[in-house]
Amino acid sequence: MNNLVDVAIEYGPTLLGGLKVSLTLTILSLALGLPIGLLFSFGVTAKNKAFRYISVFFVEVGRGAPALVLLQLMYYGLPNANLTLSSMASACLALTWTTAAYSAELIRGGMQSVPSGEIEGSHALGMSYRDCLRFVVIPQGLRIALPSLMGFAVLLFQATSLAYSVAVPELMSQAYSIGSSTFQYLPVFIVAGLLYAAISIPATWLSVGAERLLSRHL
Amino acid sequence: MEQLMIELNPQTTQPVVQVKNLAKAYGSNVVLRDVSLSVAEGSVTAMIGPSGAGKSTVLRCMNLLEQPDSGEIVIDGHCINAGKKTSPKSLAALRRSAGMVFQHFNLFPHMTVLRNVSLPQERVLGCSREQANEKSMELLKRMGLADKADQYPSRCSGGQQQRIAIARALALGPRVMLFDEPTSALDPEVGVEVLEVMKELASTGMTMVVVTHEMAFAENVADELVVMADGGIIEKGHPGQILKDPQHERTRRFLRAVLER
B238: number of CA atoms within 13 Å, CB side? Predict the structure, then answer.
């Protein structure tokens, strides 16, 4: 127990620095991945063949391949194709892909559960297809998808720990390097786990609150 | 000057709605065969008939919610030919001149009552927020719903929701209102509120086409009664006359079923 407190005090700043990198990676991947996911959610059902095939490819590969494989592919694989990215950039690219692929399906599910009668209603009023999406389908579809998107965001935050394998100095890799230089693996991983939980658990509460706020009209 | 132009415009003497030789089939299932119909300015046409007769399909073809296989639709001078490709512009023009009210209201549940009525005015007519809200409040007052403006539709009763839907359609200034079984999803007591509003609307000279099972409304309010069965019009004429003395056996059978239950 003493050991745990000592480790937390001594290596706290390093671990917190890692946590900051983890959070940055999560936020960047979400900020880039969610808009692309929204685009793909239309793409997978689009009439335009090129748009549809490209979307289906990225969604299926992004969901089918483990995030770890995508990470390694971007960091170790792309240099073979003469494209060398920094560890942070390649991790960000891989997790953006994962985010876009999963969120595309979550958003599409949300949009499809908007009752067709409302879409018909907007057509009958003479509203354009774009207006129907903008005012009727997307706001409600996103609201329906939001709880699962927030759940996914928590999973993504935890998945950033995989980025230690491509040398991103995030929380997991900081914990690992402290462990390997001090052999205090047990306390250091416990502290790291607590730090992940300290973000993940309140984030889950937040998603419940957001859900309540957004469904106040029901 | 504008007034003069309207008076001289020969279109105003034409029927507001004309449907010519409308046909539609889903695969081998024929839902409409050669339906022709014309609705005079300021008149109320009630369409009755057994379910599956194609009443709703005719109505939904009128503003192209269903694409007919063949035939022609003219509403307020905007002509749509089923054989030719419809431009988005003429489709928008057609839909703007026809207001539609659905059985299940189809309000936008995530918007307040006021937003429901104002948004289409802003997006379709290009009104400013203030203009739209003013018009919406005026219509909501007319529907007896001014106090509901800031509520969400789910907080309103079915009858109130249907009146909101009527206000939303009226706000766009349609030349004809299409009602697709507006009271069928409501219990009879609540349905009366909606029928009262429709009666009031008819008395102000609004052209209306109403698919309904409300025989009293068809008899007392409609100027023209259309009886449909098996995808075609089997009888049309003055409501009192048809209800008293139906010419067609199928009409008699239907009326017996409806009136003697």
Answer: 4
Please indicate whether, in this complex, the C-beta atoms of B108 and A123 are within 8 angstroms of each other: no
- What residues of chain B, 17 to 46, have a C-beta less than 8 Å from chain A? none
pLDDT at residue A218, as a whole number? 67
CATH (one of 1.20.1740.10, 1.10.10.60, 1.10.8.60, 1.10.3720.10) for A2-214: 1.10.3720.10
- Closest-CA residue in chain A for B93? A126
Which residues of chain A does B102 touch, with a Cβ-Cβ cutoff of 8 Å?
117, 120-121, 124
**Contact criterion met (CB below 8 Å) for B74 and B198:** no
Comparing B3 with A35, which gets the higher pLDDT? A35
Q: Does the distance separating the beta carbons of B100 and A126 come in below 8 Å?
A: no
Q: Mind telling me how many Å the CA of A40 is from chain B's nearest CA?
A: 24
**Interface contact flag, A139 B107, Cβ < 8 Å:** no
DSSP H helical ranges for chain B: 2-8, 55-62, 88-97, 113-120, 129-142, 158-170, 188-203, 215-220, 239-244, 249-259
pTM of the model: 0.83
Residue B73: pLDDT over 80: yes
Residue ranges per structural domain of chain A: 2-214
- Partners of A126 on chain B (C-beta within 8 Å) are 92, 95-96, 120, 124, 172
Quick check: A126 and B102 CB within 8 A?
no
Q: pLDDT digits over B206-246, tens only?
A: 999 999 999 999 999 999 999 999 999 999 999 999 999 99
Measuring CA to CA, how many Å separate A74 from each of A67, A80, A83, A163, A170?
11, 10, 9, 11, 17
ipTM, interface predicted TM-score of the complex: 0.87
